Amino acid sequence: MLGAGTVLSMESLKAALDAGASFIVMPILVEDVLRHCVQNKIPVFPGALTPQDIYHAWQDGATMVKVFPAKCFGPQYFQQIKGPFRDIELLACSGVTPRNMREYFNCGASAVAFGGSVFKKEWLHKKAFAKITTAIKAYLKELE
Fold it and tell me: Is the pTM of this model over 0.85?
């Protein structure tokens, strides 16, 4: 599946969908983007951090709420959020590593995301796909 991240406007949403994106990720909740995705059954992951913002994103139809930046509060934050919000699906984003990924899951994250730690600009420019593969395998190994 191909998704698009850092979607912040209807224009960038249209460009992402035209390019073939099948899901949308945002660093914040952009209401018209979220509404469009929900109405058109496009999986959407808006970013939120505070309990109020997490709840608002979920109530408005988020597929899963991207807690961003997760590294600022760590896995224990997820455990605290899940206390009153057991039914809200949470995606940990930013600062998730192979070493701490399992802890995010144990504390209530439904999913984790990685980006810059795996898709490093220098590796992409040099087409160092073997390094990217090795980095992804380090995450997958932790799930065994």
Answer: yes
- 66 and 122 together in one domain: no
Verify that 109 and 125 share a domain, yes or no: no
In the structure encoding, which two tokens stand for residue 144, read together? 């065994």
Same domain, 69 and 125: no
Domain of residue 133, residue span: 116-144
Per-residue pLDDT of the chain (144 residues; tens, 9 = 90+): 889 999 999 999 999 999 999 999 999 999 999 999 999 999 999 999 999 999 999 999 999 999 999 999 999 999 999 999 999 999 999 999 999 999 999 999 999 998 888 999 999 999 999 999 999 999 999 988
Tell me how long the chain is. 144
Tokens standing for 27? 């660093």
Rounded CA-CA distance 8/46 in Å is 10
Number of domains in the chain: 2
